[in-house]
Amino acid sequence: MKGLLLFGGLFAVAYAVLIVIALRHPLFARIAIREATRRPWQSALVVAGLMIGSGAILVSEVIQNSADDSLTAGAFQSWGHVDLTVSAPDNGYFDPRVAQTLANDPQLRHSAAAVQAGVEMLGSVADLDRGSSNAFVRVIGFDPATQAAFGRFHQLDGTETSGEALGAGRVFIGQSLATAIGARVGDRLRISIGQSTGDPKSGDVVVAGVLTAAGPGSYGLRPAVFAPLQTMAGLIGTHQINILRIGAPGDGQAELDAGHRLVPIVTAALTRLPEASQLQVREGKADDITAARQQQDPGNATGGFTSILSLIVLLAGLVLVVNLMATLVEERRPRLAVLRALGLSRLGLIAALSTEGALYSLVAAVLGVVPGLVVSWVLVASTVKGTGGRGGAGAGIAIGRDLPVQLSVRPSALALAIVAGAAVTLAAVVLAAVLRSDMTIAAAIRDLPEPTNVSRGSLALRLRYIGLAVASLFALVIPSPPFPEPLRLVGGTGLIAFAALTVRGRIPDRARLTSTGLALAAWALTSLAVAFLTSTSQSAGVDLFLAIPVTALGLSLAAVSNVRVFERAASVVGNASGRLRATLRLALAYLVRRPVRASLTVGTMAMVLSVIVIYNILIAEFTNQTRQSDARAPYDISVFMPAQRSMVLPATLQAQVATSLSIPTRSYLGPVQVSSPVGTPALWHQERMSLYEVTPALVSSPPMGRDMTNRVPQFPNDAAAWRSVQNDPGWVFWTRFNTDVRLTFVGPQGLVTRSVAGDFGDPILDGIVGSPQALAPFGNLPLGTTVLIKAKPGVDPHLLSAQLRQALLPAGAEVTAIADLLRQRGVAFENFASVPILFMRMGMVIGILSLAILAFRAVVQRRRAIGVLRALGYRRGEVVAGIVTETTLTTTVGVLVGIVTGLAAGYIYLNGTTSISPFGLDLASLAGTLALIYAAVLLTTFGPALAAAHIPPAQALRLQE
Amino acid sequence: MIETEEPEVLRVEAPEQAIVTARRVRKVYRSGTEVEALRGVDFEVGRGEMVAVVGPSGSGKTTLLNCLSGLERIDGGQILVDGSDLEKLSDNARTGYRARHMGFVFQAFNLLPVLTAVENVEIPLLLLGQRPRPAREQAMAMLETLGLADRAKHRPDMLSGGEQQRVAVARALVHQPAIVWADEPTGNLDTEGTEVVVELLVRLNKEGQTMVLVTHNPAVAGRAQRTVRMRDGRIEAPPQPARSAAPTS
Fold this sequence. Notes:
Radius of gyration of chain B: 18 Å
Low-confidence stretches of chain A: 296-303, 385-400
Order of helices and strands of chain B: EEEHEEHEHHHHEHEHEE
Distance between the termini of chain A: 46 Å
Largest sheet of chain A: 6 strands, mixed, barrel
CATH superfamily of the domain at 48-62 and 90-235 in chain B: P-loop containing nucleotide triphosphate hydrolases
Number of strands of chain A: 21
Radius of gyration of chain A: 33 Å
Structural class of chain B: alpha/beta
Oligomer: heterodimer
Mean pLDDT of chain B: 83
Number of helices of chain A: 31
Distance between the termini of chain B: 38 Å
Strand order of the largest sheet of chain B: 6-7-8-3-9-10
Low-confidence stretches of chain B: 1-15, 241-249
Strand content of chain B: 25-35%
Mean pLDDT of chain A: 80
CATH architecture of the domain at 48-62 and 90-235 in chain B: 3-Layer(aba) Sandwich
C-alpha cells in the first residue's frame, strides 16, 4: 500500500506537471501527439518495449499477493472459528469442567461465540484394512455438543454433521489423511498416541466419514483424525482434556479483532479458577495470520535470495526501458536541436520530450498489465504443485499442509503496476532527456556525433562531478549501519565513475572505458566477497543485488569497447575474408559507436543470464550433493515410530538387517519463531518439527555421513560444529538450514532458543538434531524413535521395507526406503526451483525482447544508411548478415559477460554462505538455455533484417525526416 | 520556456554600426587528435549588411557561423552580437537571446516533419510566449509574404525543396530577428529553387535584414554585399571595415 501511495503520488504529480506544461505550451503537446501518431508501428514498438515496466511490476506483485493471500486464507481456513486456545504449558491434561465454567462466565458468555473442551495429540495411524500408515497425524478430540457453534463438518458425500450421531469408537478423518493412507469409510484404524515416556496409548477405531478441507474439517490443514471426546477418552485413557477452544463472534477480520479483545476476558476468567491458574491463553490464529500476511518465510531457506535475484530481473527490465527511451531521444536529436537553435531552452526540451514520453509511458503501463497477468497466471499455476510437500517449496508456514496457491490479482496491484510502470518509465524518459539535452546544437542538427570540447565543461558540470566524488567518498569512508558493505560498493562505484568522467578526452576512449568497466567489475566482486565474509546475510543480500548489475554492466562496457577483436579474428580467415570483414566491420561499427548504450543492451542480457547461471550453479550443487548423499548414505531404510521408544523386529526380518541405528525422536507441533539473520524480529507461527537426540552412535555414524552440506562460517570445520552441537545445548543442526538462523520454541518452562550450526544435507532426519541437554526442555513431548537400517548384502531394501511396513503396521510406523527419500528430496527441490526458473524465463524474455526491439529500431532508423550500403555494392545477403551479426555479437558478448558474472557471483555466494559446498555447473541445462536464447534472438532479428535488405536502394536514399 | 526578461549581459563597446564583432576567435575540436577549426578569426558584420562566407570544405565556414550565432562555444577570443558577449551568457540566457534576436536557415531545411508549414513558422513566436492566435496570424502573414499561403497546411514531405527552404526562411524571419544566419541555404536546391531563395534573401536584406550566409556557390556569394573567404580556419583577406548597409529602397 505504501508503494501504491508513493508511486501514485509520483504519478499524479508528474502527470499533473506535464498537463500544466502541455496547456501552457500547446506546441509541446502538438509535437508529442504528432510524433506518436506519425509512425504508428514504430510507436507501437516503443510501447511494446515499455510494457515490460508495468508487466514486470504486476508479475512481481501478483506472485507476492498470491502467496500472501493463499497463506492468509490457509491460516484462516486451518483455524476455522477457533480464535483462542487455552492449554497448559506442558500440554498436560486438566479438568474438562473448566470449559463449562468458562462458558458460564457472565463476561465471556456475553463476548465469546463458543467455548469447547478438546484434546489435541500427535500420533500415528495405521489402516488395518489397507495395510498403510501415517506417522504424523493430529488426533483431535471434539465435543459434539458444542461443535455446531464452531461450524458443522462437511463430509465427502455432501452431508454435514456436528458429530452428535457418532457412536463410540467411530471417528472422522480428514481428506488428506484418507488420501495418504487410502482409507475409506468403514476401515479399521489403529491410532497410537505418543507419550513422553515412549510407551504409546493405542486403540482401534472405525472411519465413520471423510471430511473435506472446509469448515472445521480443515482444522490444522494437516492429516487428522477427529474423534468425539468420548472416543478420545478411550484412546488416551482419561476423560480429562488438554485444550480449550474459544471462538469469537463475527467472521474474518472482525472475528480476529473480537478474538483479540477476548484475551483479557479469558485470562481474567482463568485467574478466578484456582484449578486453571497454570493455563495459558494463545492467539494461535492471529499469530499464524499475522505471520502469513507479513510473508514470514523462515522455512524457505533461499526465499530472500530468490527475491534478490528476481529484483535483478526486474532491474534488467528497467534497464531495457531506459535503453529504449535513450534510443527514442537519440532518434529525435536532430529535430530537438533545431528547436534548441530556434530558442527552446534545455528545460523546455526536457519538457517537450517528457510530454511525448508521458504518452508512451501511460499507454504502455495500461497495456502492460495484460502480459503481466498472463505471466502471473503461468507462474502461479506452476507454483501450486510446489507446496505442501515434505521439505517442499512452500513457506515454513505451509510445509506439511494442504495449502494450494491461488492467483490473487488485487485492484491495488493493478493500480500499482500502472502508476509505478508509468512513473518509472517516465523517470527513464526524463533521465534520457536530461542526459541528451546537453547537446552541441550545431552537431545535433546534422545528426553528427557530439564533438569533444577542449574546455572541461561548465561550472555546474564540474560541481556535479565534485558532488559525485564527495558523496562517493563519504559512502566509501564513513559507512553507517545498517548496510556498510553495500554503501562501500556504491561509494567505490561512484568514485570509479568520477574518475572515468574526469579523464574523458585526456586518454583514448577505448582505454578509458575498458579500464572503467574492469575496475567496476573488480570492485563489485571484491565488495561482494568481503560482504559475505564479514557481514550479516541481509547486508550481503543487498550487496548481491548491487554487485551483479555493477559487474555485468562493468564487464559489458569493457567488452563492448574491445569488440573489434572479432574483426581481427575474421581477418585470419585469409583471402576469403574480404567480404566477411566488410560485413563484420559494419556490424561492429554500430556496436562500438555508442559503447555506453551498447553496454546497457549487453548488460541487460548479461544480468539476466548471470542470474540464470547462479541458479544453474545452485541446481548443480544440489545435484552434486544428492549424488554424494546417495553414494555415502550408510543406511537403506528409515523407520519412524512416533509413539514407541524402541522397535522390536520379528526374527525373520532381524536376520536381514546388517546394522541399525536408533535415534530418540520427539514430535513438536506448536509455535515456532525463526529469526534469520539472528537478531531479526520474527513472528510466531505454528510449525511441525521432529526433534532428534544426538547419541554417541549417531555421532559415530551419521545417517548421511559426517561431511556437512552447510555450516555457519564461525566453525572452522565440521568437527568443530559437531563438538558444539554435542556439548553446547545452545546449538543444534536443522535440515532446513539457512545461514544465520535462530529458532525459538515454546516449552513447558517457557521459551527455548537454539542457534543453528549447520546441516548435513539430510532428508532422512527431517528436523532438529540436538544433544540431550539441548532437547531437555521438550521432555514432555511424545517420545518415539527413528530407526535407520542397513540391509545385509543381497537383501533388496525395497522388499525389506515392505516387510517391515507390514510387520510394524500396528505401531503406525512409517517405513521408507532411503533411496525413495532422496528421490523425494530431488522432486521437492525441482518444485522449489520451478518458481525461480520461471522468473528466469521471464528475465530471458526481457533480454531477448530488449535485443529484438533494439534490432528492429536499428533497422528502421538505418534505412537510409542501408540504402547507401546497397548503392555501394552490399548484397542483400550481406545487409541481412550484417544486422544479424550485430545482434548475434551483442548476444554473444552478453552471454559471455553473463556467464562470467554469474560464475563469479555464484562462487562468492556459495563460498560465503556455506564455506564447504562443491562448485559446479549444469552444462546441459545451460547449453539448452543458450540455444533457446540464440534461436529466439535470430528469429526476432531475421525478419526485420530481411525487410530492410529488400528496400530498393533509391527509395532508401530518398528517405529523410 | 524562453527567458522573457532581457538577460544580464556584458556590454562591450563595439565598433559603430557593427552588429557582430569577433576578435581572435579560436575553436578547437578534440576527438583523438586536436583540430583547430578557427585560428584567431577577426570578423565584423555591419547592421543591415549581407555577408557571404565562402571557402573550401573544412575551411571553418560553418564553424564560424555556429560560433557567431552561439550554437557552439568558443575556446578563445570574444564575440559580441549587438554589444552582448555571448560567451559570457549562461546556456539559458544565450538560448533566450537567440530566440529573440536571431533566425536560422539550414542547408537541410530542418523543418519539423510532424508539423505543417504554418505550424513550423509559428514555432519561434510560440517559444517567445506569444498567444496561439496572433502567432498563427503572424505566421500566415509571413507565408503570404513569401508566396506560400496556399501551402500553409502542408507538411514538409508534401513540399518541394524550394518550398521547404522558403518555409524555413519564413520561420527564420517571422519574429523579426536582428540577424539571420544561413548555412548553405541553397545547398539542397536545384537552380530554379536556388534562384527563388536567393532573390528572397536579397529582397529581405534590401528591406534592412542583416544576414550572414555560408555558401559554396559563387553565384550566391556574388549577390552579397561583401564576401569573406576562409581557408584553414583563418579569414584570407583582412576584414573590411564595417559599413552601413542601410536599405537602398
